[in-house]
Amino acid sequence: MRYIKLTAFIFLGVILLCAFSFFTNNNHYGTWTITSLRNDKEIPWARFYWGGADLNGKRYDRMYMFVPVKIEGLPYNFSLQFDLGDPYTELYEKNMQSVFIRHPRMQDQYRRLKGPLQFWNSNKSFKNLSVEAGDIRLFSENCVVKSGYGDMLSIRSADDTLHLGTLGADAFQNKVLIIDYPNQRFAICESLPEAYKTAFVDMEFGSDRKIIIPMSFRGKQFRVTFDNGSSMFPLITQARYIDRFSTGANVDTVRISSWGQYHNVTGRLMKDSFDLAGQRFANVLVYANHSGYGMDTKTDAMTGNALFWVKVVVIDFKNRKFGVK
Questions:
Q1: pTM confidence score
Q2: For position 116, what pLDDT does the model report?
Q3: In Å, what is the CA distance from 205 to each residue of 56, 156, 172, 227, 279?
Q4: Burial code of 110-128, b = ≥16 C-beta within 10 A, e = fewer?
């Protein structure tokens, strides 16, 4: 028995040592360097466009936010989904294979990361990725690659646009992000521009890279995840929490897909107004997610873009502040 315990202790020590080596040697995994392509006095802007879909026979024009980008060394037009609900900016492995077919040398930048118990490790990255979005250049030594995800797509000409993955929260750490919804553009700044100073509330932004903002409703305080990859619903919560926000009848049902998983959500009208991130909202539908898939289970609810379509959202990641202008 003593021998078994000693062996287990040694095995655990090896795992911890390998893990320490992994995080030490890959400390640039999922981190980005942001450079403005304009002079220091001008705000560097990049544009986004809305992507829509038909669900249950109804058209939703503003479901997804896509960012047109160019990748250094490639002649094609690319897009990334703008999704702060994803902690990492990710390339989709199958979509990347479409590029490798035409540019096999690009595979030299694609590798499996060395980590603890390498035979179990499926983490992959794309080395030295340089992306331009409008006036902004983003560079990563090791961009995350989502293994086995995406679709093999055909590139016929340099005029084609190939969707490559997701622009996630890691790209904005220690920066100020401005999302100008009416003008369909966003900026990444080192400090808050004078023109975008507004009233701010404290936000949470921890190791899981989730943006959590305060909500006040009927005298109670709630924690709400802000996720701009979730565009359809003003407010959505787990089904078990729906009565906290509304006990009315269901007035809407939508079947949606979250990362390939299909499930129903049902909407109820909130009879009272509420304050979210310092803004007052009324006559809002709150939706119940009956599967729980895609929800942040550590908060009370989630909001996306629908409440802010005519607003400008300012997120100061450096000082953990959230403002609406």
A1: 0.86
A2: 44
A3: 35, 42, 11, 12, 20
A4: beebebbeeeeeebbbbee
